[in-house]
Specification:
mainly beta, 395 residues, cell outer membrane, Porin, globular, transport, porin activity, transmembrane beta strand, single chain, two-stranded antiparallel sheet, 6 helices, transmembrane, 16-stranded antiparallel barrel, disordered N terminus
Length: 395
């Protein structure tokens, strides 16, 4: 005991000695670095009532949340390490505002969970993070600005803003308006990838490149991405997304023998998905005109098909507090064509709170069930329309 007390006393004396105090006291430069470090807590809350004219043959009204933007909360931070180098992190989780549950069952940080380093040339990050389609092309998805249901049908081009797991990503700094990047995602080895079926196989690897350029009123972005054996969070579900009864020659649903209801196949075992997306915008006073194009190639079951989508529209500032948006998109896939018109009015109560009204109407080829977004069952015919009134708060 005497030896232990002696050691404790000696340690305290050494800790408070002038030499150690001089070595541990933060310098003015170090204090400045600490002051440049920050942690931010943020989030988005979105809720409203949506009326749909035909959902499986019947009209419907529902409280739907996370439509204009997904409900989410997150925390992000940066630490200045000196010499132009910084450490950074971000954690972001989505949830359902109506019942408080997680959007991805069993996964807390389903949107972003990453850490990395940055300097004057760009940043290198690791983990779950948004892909480069989100970074460089999603801002030109004008229909989604008018209605949250109007991101490209099925989101097969990932323009709605998607995270990808197990990824390494480089995003450059801004070089006179030009930014660019590359991403690689490792295969998921945790879900028995040797099994050649949708439920048992894990996602394969993926890679993604892209660039964005802005100069005055003009901006444009493009990205290319390849997903190998997309499963899980990358899965293909063509019936509930497009109303298709067949996809690459395969049925998109099964029939419940007891009820006769259609049960969508949510995870079709395709071999690969290739995405090319490009968009541009031009500001003319209160009007911002936008256009984008996407080409998605699916391969699987010994077949290959391309889905092509073009979108045009614009946003007009009607007053200091009121914006109006219109977007039109046309999709072509195999023998199917579809047209969708989206309209929106957004009234800003403040910089962080707004009220909005949106309407969508979609008509597909004869024999295809019309469906808008993924929140409703397909229509009993080739058309579907909806009206939404909602509120959004950003913090």
């Amino acid at each position: 005991m005497k030896v232990l007390l002696s050691l404790i006393g000696s340690s305290c004396a050494l800790a408070f000695s002038p030499l150690v105090q001089a070595q541990t006291e933060a310098s003015a430069a170090e204090k400045k670095i600490v002051s440049q470090s920050a942690v931010t807590f943020y989030g988005v809350l979105d809720a409203g009532v949506t009326f749909v004219n035909n959902e499986a043959g019947h009209g419907n009204a529902k409280l739907d949340t996370g439509v204009m933007e997904p409900n989410r909360w997150g925390v992000k931070g940066v630490e200045n390490l000196g010499g132009g180098l910084s450490a950074l992190f971000q954690l972001e989780s989505s949830f359902n505002l109506d019942d408080g549950s997680l959007s991805s069952q069993g996964t807390l940080f389903d949107r972003v969970a990453m850490v990395g380093l940055s300097n004057q040339f760009g940043q290198l990050t690791f983990g779950t993070q948004y892909d480069l389609i989100n970074d460089y092309v999603t801002p030109f998805n004008i229909s989604a600005s008018s209605s949250g249901y109007a991101s490209h049908q099925g989101d097969f081009d990932r323009i709605a803003g998607n995270a990808i797991q197990r990824s390494v990503k480089f995003a450059s700094a801004d070089f006179k308006g030009l930014t660019f990047g590359a991403l690689y995602a490792f295969a998921d080895k945790s879900q028995h990838p040797d099994e050649n079926n949708a439920e048992g196989a894990g996602s394969g690897n993926a890679w993604n490149i892209g660039a964005h350029y802005a100069n005055g009123p003009f901006s444009a972005g493009a990205s290319y991405m390849r997903l190998n054996t997309p499963r899980g969070t990358q899965a293909i579900g063509p019936y509930q997304s497009l109303g298709l009864t067949h996809f690459l020659g395969q049925p998109t649903f099964t029939i419940d023998p007891s009820s006769g209801d259609r049960i969508p196949i949510n995870n079709m075992a395709i071999d690969s998905q290739k995405i090319f997306a490009i968009g541009a915008a031009y500001e003319m006073g209160d009007l911002t005109a936008m256009a984008n194009f996407a080409d998605i190639e699916f391969r699987g079951f010994g077949q290959a098909s391309d889905l092509r989508l073009i979108e045009i529209g614009g946003r007009y500032r009607l007053s200091a507090a009121l914006d109006g948006t219109v977007g039109y998109q046309r999709m072509h896939f195999e023998d199917t064509k579809a047209n969708q018109l989206s309209l929106g009015l957004d009234y800003h109560l403040s910089k962080r709170s707004d009220l909005y009204v949106s309407a969508d109407y979609r008509r597909a080829s004869r024999g295809v069930n019309g469906v808008i977004g993924n929140s409703f069952a397909p229509s009993s015919n080739s058309a579907q329309g909806l009206l939404r009134v909602g509120m959004r708060h950003v913090f």
